[in-house]
Amino acid sequence: MAGFNHTGVNHAVFYLLGIPGREDLHMWFSIPLCISYVFALLGNGLLIFIILTKSNLHEPMYLFLCMLAGIDIAFATTTEPKALAIFWYNNREISLNGCIVQLYFRHTFFISESGILLMMAFDRYIAICYPLRYTMILTHSLIGKIGVAVFLRAHCAIFPIVFLLKRLTFCRNNILPHTFCEHIGLAKYACNDIRVNIWYGFFVLMSTVILDMILILVSYVLILCAVFHIPSQDACHKALNTCGSHVCVIVLFYGPGIFSVLTQRFGHHIPLHIHILLASVSMLAPPMLNPIIYGVKTKQIRDQVVYVLFPNQNCL
Question: Model pTM?
Answer without folding.
Answer: 0.90
